[in-house]
Amino acid sequence: MAVPEGEKGGGKDKKREKREEVKECPECGSKCLVRDYGKAEIFCADCGLVIAENIVDLGPEWRAFDSEQMSKRARAGAPLTYRIHDKGLSTLTNWGSPAQGQYKLKKWQQRTHIANTTERSFIFALSEIERMSSALKLPVSIREAASMLYRKAMKKHLIRGRSIEGITSAILYITCRQYGVPRTLEEVREVSRVSQKEISRAYRFLLRELDLKISPASPIDFVPRFCSMLGLGGDIRAKAIEIIKKASEKELTNGRGPIGIAAAAIYIAAILNGEHRTQKDVSDVTGVTEVTIRNRYKELSEQLDIEVLL
Ligand SMILES: [Zn+2]
How does pLDDT run across 103-118, given as a tens digit for each residue? Predict the structure, then answer.
């Protein structure tokens, strides 16, 4: 039964309102949500997930957008999108030829066309997974798991009508998380051909459609890689992890994104071990804004009674 137009629209609006009530990031639990007036979207200042798009007025409690974050996000770059066009399906109804033989031929051509399109898009997807994995220096096990997840999505017909680049980027992001070697959205975006918004959208879509439950990443998961990217050794890595554990015991990590916590803990640990890295150095590597690093660092050092001498 068709739902009357009016009712259908009403339901949709209600759904949208509900989604906009979100007060924390569903991805990392951070309460640092930012409303971007220009793009009419809400994103998480900690992990960069785009939480809602096409937003309407949300009221006054939304914190002001700071210009530094604006410029950081604005660099997200223009996507170069390659879509597989499926001409066969859209023109299906135009083939009403009376000659049955011709009809059958067309039918067969359609099928082959669809098979070829699917196969071509699958090959392209695998090559994208391979290309991005290699740029992100991911082990073979993760590439294989990502390819399998892609195949699963394909079998459920989740790819049709979507950009393969968006889906493959989201799949890599998911797989890294599942394997305990999380990459930040920013890192995936850097090797991807699509924007952070598109990756976020594909990510939310896949989680929902594949019914995937992914527990929030722990700040500790990010520490080894960030430290090595900053040229910091084992002592500092251990110290940063110790800080994170203490912070977590005191529940200082609640409502804070894991990447921001990791960044601040590393920043503090480096100073304590006499290897100072600037907030900008840490920001460049982690993708967390300097403002966020400064805020987390102040919270952590104050609450944990750590004396940081610059
Ligand atoms: Zn987040």
Answer: 777 777 777 776 777 7
b/e sequence 130-168, b meaning 16+ C-beta within 10 Å: eebbeebebeeebbebbbebbeebbeeebbeebbbbbbb
Note the CATH number of domain 87-209.
1.10.472.10
Q: Cα(204) to centroid of ligand 1, in Å?
A: 13
Ligand 1 centroid vs 46 CA: distance in angstroms?
A: 5
Question: What kind of fold does domain 219-303 have according to CATH?
Answer: Cyclin A; domain 1 (1.10.472)
Ligand 1 centroid vs 130 CA: distance in angstroms?
A: 26
User: Ligand 1 center to residue 60 CA distance, Å?
Assistant: 21
Residue spans of the domains in the chain: they are 19-74, 87-209, 219-303
CATH no. for 19-74:
2.20.25.10
- State in Å: Cα 100 to ligand 1 middle: 57
pTM over 0.70: no
Nearest one of 190, 266, 170 to 258, comparing CA atoms: 266
Query: Which is more confidently placed, 13 or 132?
Result: 132
* Helix (H) or strand (E) segment spanning residue 279: helix 279-286
Tell the burial category of 172 from Cβ atoms under 10 Å away from its Cβ (0-12, 13-18, 19+): buried
Residues with CB under 5 A from ligand 1 (ion): 25, 27-28, 30, 44, 46-47, 49, 257
pLDDT (tens digit, 9 = 90+) per residue, 144-200? 999 999 999 999 999 988 999 999 999 999 999 998 888 999 999 999 999 999 999
Residue 129, classified by CB atoms within 10 Å of its CB into exposed (0-12), middle (13-18) or buried (19+), is buried
**Ligand 1 geometric centre to CA of 117 (Å):** 36
pLDDT tens by residue, 210-260 = 999 888 889 999 999 999 999 999 999 999 999 999 999 999 998 888 999
Cα-to-centroid distance, 3 and ligand 1 (Å) = 36
| CATH topology match: 87-209 vs 219-303 | yes
